[in-house]
Amino acid sequence: MAGTVARYFAAILMMLLLAGAICGGVTAQVFPPWNGTFPMGPGGSGGGGASVPAMFVFGDSLTDNGNNNDMTSLAKANYLPYGIDFAGGPTGRFSNGYTMVDEIAELLGLPLLPSHNDATGDAALHGVNYASAAAGILDNTGQNFVGRSPFNEQIKNFEATLDQITGKLGAGKTAQSLARSIFYVGMGSNDYLNNYLMPNYNTRNEYNGDQYSTLLVQQYTKQLTRLYNLGARRFVIAGVGSMACIPNMRARNPANMCSPDVDDLIIPFNSKVKNMVNTLNVNLPHAKLIYVDNYAMISEILRNPWSYGTPSIALFTSSSSLQYTSTS
């Protein structure tokens, strides 16, 4: 299933990009049933050049491609069974094979993006993946996993890459390239899973749900503006998907049941992120941001798996009681 869903997400995003949706604030919410085919950019399987000069990825375990491998960290995936479908075996990706951003890069005609540690020489010219498992918007998020690169540190790593690219292309060409490149950012999950919802954090005692989501979005806004000031113009902002029934949350529940109250925190956060995207589109000259509604996308796929090439899947039985049931 993971590969099918990743390909579907990537196809949806590719359609947005090819349709020019990157040129305005777009909320991706409703999607047609998948017909088993994928749109290809100029650099896809049909050959030709890439659709964009480069893609730079910032995120967590959903997009990490090995940045945590050399860290003293509990958040690693460089061992089996991870990577069982990836040529060469485990790479540090928290998946069987490609992640969604790998699929997007391929559809855009770009090579697989190197991790920050491997982005040397010309490898960085087509983009870099800075995502780090357990990372969050807040610097203290995920500290229970020890090593990780929070979003602020990922931006610092991008600054180092920027110096490297500028040294090769010059300031003018670098600015032109960045303005046409895609900046994919998917943050926020760990700020709940490995911060607000952790008993050894004091965060929940300091903020109620509304206050905390406001704090996150305020910091998120500053971070995205920082990327803009470094030259980023085209942003894809991924919302947080449903987490009520993920294994992490069910394992925390003595009855091994879903926790709908978790999504009661996520939904308002996503709503504020959407508003942030709209505001930044107005306030940042020449910036173009789109919001990808992962919550709606995942929910749609779970409720209608047959339409997306997945005949057997765990499903939500109802929107009010998020429980899984097998459809095999």
Automatic annotation (TrEMBL):
InterPro entries, sorted: GDSL, GDSL_esterase/lipase, SGNH_plant_lipase-like
Keywords from the named record: Signal
GO molecular function, one term: hydrolase activity, acting on ester bonds
Signal peptide feature range: 1-28
Keyword Signal recorded: yes
Family: Belongs to the 'GDSL' lipolytic enzyme family.
Protein name: GDSL esterase/lipase
